[in-house]
Design brief:
By secondary structure, the protein is mainly alpha-helical. The chain has helices spanning 2-29, 34-43, 53-69, 75-90, 92-96, 102-125, 130-160. Helix 1 packs antiparallel against helix 4.
Length: 163
């Protein structure tokens, strides 16, 4: 019976980690074509909530003008995207052996917590609208849930000492 419970728990842990990896990869991949995405949203601006429309237009214009005059600045967002992909790779360790690699889950939880002060402080300094700062904060808030569930599951799996 313990073995079956351990297998089910391991399965749930792996599903949560896989979901987290997928979202990290998607977040990274969407950071590459920022100008293209913004152009799309400006062309389809009516699909966006009214609150977002002026901000998306302003950001799109800024990115377009910056890329035209200083394309090398977008290299920074390329590295941001790459970092997301590299961090996603780190989560393969706990996917394979959650108990041995629980530290990666702990690292992820800490990183999610660190999103909040970064977004609040840097967002304010950079004059990012409050609603957008809150959207950025949501990445940390939503990211911590599957990781915390993983952490609790891994600790339970460790107690079962089945794996």
């Amino acid at each position: 019976m313990e073995k079956q419970n351990g297998n089910q728990l391991l399965f749930r842990i792996r599903v949560l980690i896989t979901v987290f990896i997928v979202f990290l990869v998607l977040s990274g991949l969407t950071a590459f074509p920022i100008e293209t995405q913004l152009s799309f949203f400006v062309k389809h601006i009516s699909l966006l909530p009214e609150l977002l429309r002026p901000w998306i237009k302003e950001v799109s214009l800024a990115v377009s003008n910056t890329n035209e005059s200083y394309p090398f600045l977008s290299y920074g967002t390329d590295w941001l995207a790459f970092a997301h992909l590299v961090i996603a790779v780190a989560f393969i360790g706990p996917l394979k052996d959650p108990v041995r690699n629980v530290w990666v889950i702990q690292f992820g939880i800490i990183a999610c917590i660190m999103v909040l002060p970064l977004a609040l402080i840097a967002g304010t300094i950079r004059e990012i609208p409050t609603f957008w700062i809150l959207i950025d904060c949501s990445f940390g808030v939503f990211g911590i849930f599957p990781l915390y569930l993983c952490y609790k599951g891994i600790k339970k799996l460790e107690r079962l000492s089945v794996f």
